[in-house]
Amino acid sequence: MSCEIALAKPRNTVSAGLPLLLVSAGALIDADGRILMAQRPEGKSMAGLWEFPGGKVQEGESPEFALCRELEEELGLDLRETCLTPIAFASHAYDEFHLLMPLYACRMWNGDPHPREGQKIKWVKPDELYDLPMPEADIPLISQLIDRL
C-alpha cells in the first residue's frame, strides 16, 4: 500500500490522557534454544498469564539497566547490559495505561533462574509460545522473536 493511499484512510484513535508505562522485557534463550517464560502470580493484574520476564523502568534508569535489575530481583540472575540485544518492542493501549515495552534477547547470564516473587517459570520452545495464554501486548512479540532466533 502506498503512503498516499494509507493517508487517505482515517487514523485509528486512542483515548487521550492514558499514562505511558515503560516496561523492559527479556527473552532469555538457553543453549537448547528455549525461552524462559514467567507466569504472573496471583494478586497481580493479569494473574495466570505467561510473559517475558522483566518489569517497570524506574525514573532515571535505562531500559537495559532496568531489565538487568528486574531479572536479578525476580529470578536471581546476574547479567550485564552488554549481553542484551534489542529485537522487538510492543506498543499497546490497555484500559488504564499505554504500554511501551522493548524486548531484548539474552543468551548469557550468571546463575540459574529461581522465582523469587511467587511466579512460576518454565523453559519453552519457540513454537510452543503461541500455546501459552499471554497478555495482549506480548503476543505480537512472538513472531518477531522467532524471526530473529
Provide a brief overview of the structure.
The protein is of the alpha+beta class and 149 residues long.
Q: Could you outline the blueprint of secondary structure elements for this entry?
A:
Blueprint: H1 3-8, E1 20-28, E2 35-39, E3 50-51, E4 54-56, H2 63-75, E5 84-93, E6 98-106, E7 120-124, H3 139-148
Any overview of this molecule?
It is a single chain. The chain has 149 residues and is an alpha+beta fold. It has a single domain (18-148), classed as Alpha-Beta Complex (Nucleoside Triphosphate Pyrophosphohydrolase). 19% of the residues lie in helices and 29% in strands. It contains three helices and seven strands. It has helices at 3-8, 63-75, 139-148; strands at residues 20-28, 35-39, 50-51, 54-56, 84-93, 98-106, 120-124. The protein has a four-stranded mixed sheet with strand order 4-1-6-5, with helices on both faces. Strand 5 and strand 6 (98-106) form a beta hairpin. The protein is globular, with a radius of gyration of 16 Å. The model has no long low-confidence stretch (mean pLDDT 91).
